[in-house]
Automatic annotation (TrEMBL):
Gene3D superfamilies: YVTN repeat-like/Quinoprotein amine dehydrogenase. Coiled coil: none annotated. Pfam families: Beta-prop_RIC1_2nd (PF25440), RIC1 (PF07064). This is RIC1 C-terminal alpha solenoid region domain-containing protein. SUPFAM superfamilies: WD40 repeat-like. GO terms for biological process: intracellular protein transport; retrograde transport, endosome to Golgi. Residues 633-677 form the RIC1 C-terminal alpha solenoid region domain. PANTHER family: GUANINE NUCLEOTIDE EXCHANGE FACTOR SUBUNIT RIC1, RAB6A-GEF COMPLEX PARTNER PROTEIN 1. It comes from the Eukaryota. It is found in: Membrane. One of its GO terms (cellular component) is Ric1-Rgp1 guanyl-nucleotide exchange factor complex.
Length: 679
C-alpha cells in the first residue's frame, strides 16, 4: 500500500487500536490491527502557518545546554524538507509521540484522546535541537525523555518542565570515548522507570539508574571489581559480551531480565538477569538495617561473615510457593531485621532468619485470594495492602507473624480507593490516596500477640489532610520523629490528649521529579529541601540499638549529587534550609555503588556494585558485590563544629574498634586542613 520509492525506515509504536510507522519521505503511516491503511501524514506544528513569525518557531525549538555553544540555528524539519523518520516512541499515559528524523532532529508531539487513529490530533508541540539524536526512550512514570546521541552520550530531559535538560550520561569518565563505543543505538527503561539500559553500535551495553549510578556494564574494567581464573586465556569475545555492538534491547514485564541482540550476531538473543533493591517507595516500607536484593525467585541478603567482610547470601523462595505465584514482587524486612515478608503475584510467605524457617498459608484458597500491592511491618504484625479483584477495591489485612490464616486475622480495614504511598511509624500508619489525600491511623492492641491468647486490634483515624499542590505526586512519604531536644513528652491523664501529643506531626516527601521536602502536618506548610533525590532514609524512625553511631543524623538522601547527610535543625524556624548542614562535600559516593541501607552500629552506608568474574564459560559472570562506605568522619566533624567535644569523644571511643576508623580520622584531618586552606 506504500507509494513507489517510499519505504519504512523506523521501528513501530502502537496503542490498543493502531500502530504507527515512520517513512522515508518524512511522513507517518497509521495501520489498524485489522491491516487497514489510512493516508500517510506529515507532522505539523502551529508555527508552520505562513502568518507566524520566526519568534514563534524559535519558541518551539529547545537547545540543550551541552550543545548551545556550537548549535546551528536550523528551521524545524516540518518547515524545510522531507527527512526520513527513523525512530518513533509512544507514551499512551502521557499522550506523547516522539519522532526522530534522519537529520537527528527530535519532534515531541501531543496525541489526541482517540489515540493514533485520529491523525488530525497528532501535532508537534516542541522540537529538541540536539543535532545528533539517534534514538529515544520515554519513562512515562518519571516523565523523563532519554535521547541517545551519535556522540555516544545519553541526554535526559524533564518532560514535566517543557523538556528541561537534566543531565548527560556517558562512559567518558571510565576511559571509553565515542571511538570505542560508537553512537547510541538503543535505550530501554525498566518497567518501574528507575533505571535504563543503553546499547552502542560498536560495542557493549550499560545500565544506569535515573540519577546516574552505573549499575551494570559489559565493558571489561581493570581493577578490583573483576576476577580472572588462571585457566582463562586472553580472548576478547570471552572477556566481554556484545563485542560486536548492540542493535536491540528490551526488558521483560517485571524488570528481572534484559534481552539484547548483538549487532554482528543477530541470530541469537542474550539474556541478563537482574536483582532489585528494596526501595522505600510506594506501598512498601522496609528497615534500613537489613540490606536486601531480590530476584524473580530468590532473595539476596547482605550480611557480614566471620571476618566482618560483607557477603551476599542467596535465599531461594520455596518452589511450592514460587511455582504458583511467580515472580517475587515484594520483599520487606521487619524492624528488627529478623523476619522477611515475601509476596508474589498471589499470597504471602514469611521467613524467620533466626530459625531459618518459612511460614505459609495452610489453606491455598486463602492464599490465592490475596493479591498483594504493598507490605508493611508493625512490630510483630505484617500488614498487607490487598487488592480485591471482584469488587475493584483495596483493603489492609493485619496478620500476626506467628500464623498466616484468616482465623488469626487481627483486622481488616477497607480503604477509600487505590493508595499510592504508605508508611509505618511506631503505632501509626500513613496512607495517601491520589492526588494527595493523607490519612493517618493509630493502632492499639489489647492482649498478648501469641498463639495462646486472643489479641484485639483497634484502628482509629487520628488525622486527615487534603493537600492541594501543583507539584508532581509523591512516590514516598516517611513519618519522622520529633526533634529530641524538645524534651521528653510527659504522660497525661487524658488519654486522647496524650495520643495527640505523641503522634508524628512531620513527614518527608519524595516526589516523582526527585524533589525532597518536609511537611508540617499541623499547619500544612511544606518546605522544599533539595532535588535530584532518588532514595532517602529516616534514621530515627525505628527502634535504635544502644550501639547506634549515627544518632546525630536526622536523615540521609542519595541522588545525582551523591550522598547527603542531614542533621537536626536547632534554629527558630525548623524548616530553614540554612539551619541544616545539608551536603558533606567529602562524602563522595562511588558512582558504581548503589546504596541499599545503613549499618548504624558501624556508622556506614552499605551499597552494591557489579563484579565480573571469568571462568571457562562462554561469557563472564556478572555478580552483585556488597560495599560499605563510612560516614563517621562526617559525624565527627559535625559534632566538633558545634563544640560538642564530649559527644565527639564518646563517638570516637565507640568507633575505635570499627573497620575503617583510622581511615576516618585521616579523612577528617584532610577535610579540616582543606577547609582551613580554602578560607
Amino acid at each position: 500500500p506504500l507509494a513507489n520509492a517510499i519505504s519504512i525506515r523506523s521501528n513501530f509504536a502502537c496503542d490498543s487500536k493502531s500502530m504507527l510507522l515512520g517513512l522515508s519521505n518524512g511522513h507517518l503511516q497509521v495501520v489498524s490491527w485489522n491491516a487497514e491503511f489510512s493516508d500517510s501524514f506529515k507532522l505539523r506544528c502551529s508555527a508552520c502557518s505562513p502568518d507566524k513569525t520566526a519568534a514563534v518557531v524559535d519558541a518551539l525549538v529547545f537547545d540543550p545546554p551541552s550543545l548551545r555553544g556550537n548549535s546551528n540555528a536550523r528551521p524545524a524539519p516540518c518547515c524545510t524538507g522531507d527527512f526520513a523518520i527513523v525512530h518513533v516512541e509512544l507514551s499512551v499515559k502521557l499522550r506523547l509521540l516522539v519522532a526522530v528524523y534522519s537529520d537527528c532532529q527530535v519532534a515531541l508531539c501531543t496525541v489526541g484522546k482517540k489515540g493514533l487513529k485520529q491523525t488530525s490530533g497528532i501535532r508537534v508541540d516542541r522540537w529538541l535541537n540536539t543535532g545528533d539524536a539517534m534514538c529515544t526512550s520515554v519513562a512515562s512514570e518519571q516523565q523523563i525523555l532519554a535521547v541517545g546521541c551519535s556522540r555516544g552520550v545519553v541526554e535526559l530531559y524533564d518532560l514535566a518542565e517543557n523538556a528541561r535538560h537534566i543531565r548527560t550520561l556517558s562512559l567518558f569518565d571510565w576511559g571509553y570515548s565515542v571511538e570505542d563505543t560508537g553512537p547510541v543505538t538503543c535505550i530501554s527503561w525498566t518497567p518501574d522507570n528507575c533505571a535504563f539500559a543503553v546499547g552502542w553500535k560498536f560495542r557493549g551495553l550499560t545500565v544506569w539508574s535515573v540519577s546516574g549510578c552505573r549499575l551494570m556494564c559489559t565493558f571489561r574494567q581493570a581493577g578490583s571489581n573483576s576476577a580472572l581464573s588462571p585457566m582463562v586465556k586472553p580472548n576478547a569475545q570471552k572477556f566481554e559480551p556484545l563485542m560486536g555492538g548492540t542493535s536491540h534491547i528490551q526488558w521483560d514485564d517485571y524488570g528481572y531480565k534484559l534481552f539484547a541482540v548483538e549487532e554482528s550476531l543477530s541470530e541469537r538473543v542474550l539474556a541478563f538477569s537482574f536483582a532489585k533493591c528494596c526501595l522505600n517507595r510506594g506501598l512498601s516500607s522496609t528497615t534500613y538495617t537489613r540490606q536486601i536484593l531480590y530476584g524473580e525467585d530468590r532473595i539476596l541478603l547482605v550480611q557480614p561473615d566471620d571476618t566482618d567482610e560483607l557477603k551476599i547470601l542467596h535465599l531461594n523462595v520455596p518452589v511450592s510457593y514460587s511455582s504458583q505465584n511467580w515472580p517475587v514482587l515484594h520483599v520487606v524486612a521487619s524492624d528488627d531485621g529478623m523476619y522477611l515478608a515475601v509476596a508474589g503475584s498471589r499470597g504471602l510467605v514469611l521467613y524467620d532468619l533466626r530459625n531459618k524457617r518459612w511460614r505459609f498459608f495452610g489453606d491455598v484458597t486463602q492464599e490465592q485470594k490475596i493479591q498483594c500491592k504493598g507490605l508493611l511491618w508493625l512490630g510483630k504484625i505484617v500488614i498487607v495492602c490487598n487488592y480485591v479483584e471482584s469488587s475493584n477495591t483495596y483493603e489492609l489485612l493485619f496478620f500476626p507473624r506467628y500464623h498466616l490464616d484468616h482465623s488469626s486475622l487481627l483486622y481488616r480495614k477497607p480503604l477509600l480507593g487505590r493508595p499510592i504511598v504508605m508508611d509505618v511509624f511506631q503505632d501509626y500508619i500513613l496512607v495517601t490516596y491520589s492526588p494527595f489525600d493523607v490519612h493517618i491511623f493509630h493502632v492499639m492492641i489489647s492482649g498478648e500477640l501469641s498463639p495462646t491468647s486472643s489479641p484485639v486490634l483497634q484502628l482509629s483515624t487520628v488525622r486527615e489532610l487534603s493537600i492541594m499542590s501543583p507539584k508532581s505526586p509523591p512516590v514516598s512519604m516517611r513519618l519522622i520523629p520529633e526533634p529530641t531536644d524538645e524534651g521528653v513528652l510527659k504522660r497525661d491523664t487524658n488519654e486522647s490528649s496524650n495520643l495527640s501529643s505523641q503522634q508524628p506531626s512531620r513527614c518527608l516527601i519524595l516526589r516523582v521529579n526527585g524533589e525532597l521536602s518536609v511537611l508540617d502536618m499541623d499547619d500544612g506548610h511544606e518546605q522544599a529541601l533539595t532535588n535530584s533525590v532518588e532514595l532517602f532514609w529516616v534514621v530515627g524512625s525505628q527502634e535504635e540499638e544502644k550501639s547506634n553511631l549515627i544518632k546525630e543524623v536526622s536523615w540521609l538522601d542519595y541522588g545525582h549529587q551523591g550522598m547527603q547527610v542531614w542533621y537536626p535543625s536547632h534554629g527558630a524556624n525548623p524548616f530553614r534550609q540554612e539551619d541544616f548542614l545539608q551536603l558533606d562535600p567529602e562524602l563522595e559516593f562511588d558512582r558504581e555503588v548503589y546504596p541499599l541501607g545503613l549499618l548504624p552500629n558501624v556508622g556506614a552506608v552499605v551499597g552494591v556494585s557489579q563484579r565480573t568474574s571469568f571462568s571457562t564459560a562462554e561469557f563472564p559472570c556478572f555478580e552483585p558485590s556488597p560495599k560499605a562506605q563510612t560516614i563517621l568522619h562526617c559525624l565527627l566533624r559535625h559534632l566538633l563544629q558545634r563544640d560538642k567535644h564530649e559527644e565527639a569523644l564518646r563517638l570516637a571511643n565507640l568507633s575505635a574498634e570499627k573497620p575503617h576508623f583510622s581511615h576516618c580520622l585521616e579523612w577528617l584531618l584532610f577535610t579540616v586542613f582543606e577547609a582551613d586552606i580554602s578560607r
